[in-house]
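Quick check before the chapter quiz. The format below is the same one you will see on the exam, so make sure you can read both the input and the output lines.
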Amino acid sequence: MVEKALHWHDVAYNLKSVALRYFNAAGADPETEIGEDHDPETHLIPLVIQSALGQRAQVEIFGTDYDTPDGTAIRDYIHVLDLADAHVRALKYLQNEGESIAVNLGTGTGSSVREVINAVEKGTGHTVPFKESPRRAGDPPALVADATMAKQVLGWEARYSDLDYIVKTAWAWTQKQQSN
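Here is the expected output.
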């Protein structure tokens, strides 16, 4: 709906825009000043970290029978540093008289729920308790970005979105929050 509104503002007022379609924003800034803190928390990586720390009894895996390599759902995680870079590039694109566009921001590959759990265990040294549950209605087996247009038009591609790096920065931010 917002993209349609942006389109019509372009038509009516010649107001150009870049709609950035985030996939799963994750991680924290490397200086640990900004990180994820939702109430209630619904994002997988912070939920898994909370489970590793014993702040929640377990993380729930919704569906283990998807047609994916390990049976769990795959999502495309994009580091917040990559998202910030995309914003800067979008502004420069518009400053250079770029046309209105919408672009996907992601890696194009994705990680499964089990891969996220394994990455958190590896990155934190903590075991992650989990519970396997049935699929949630409407959850697709895999959801990953095609960021081709972002690369072609903005010169953007994910550089910091390796799952281990995402977990490393999220873990560092969480550790800092606990010490405050």
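If your answer matched, good. The mean pLDDT is 96.
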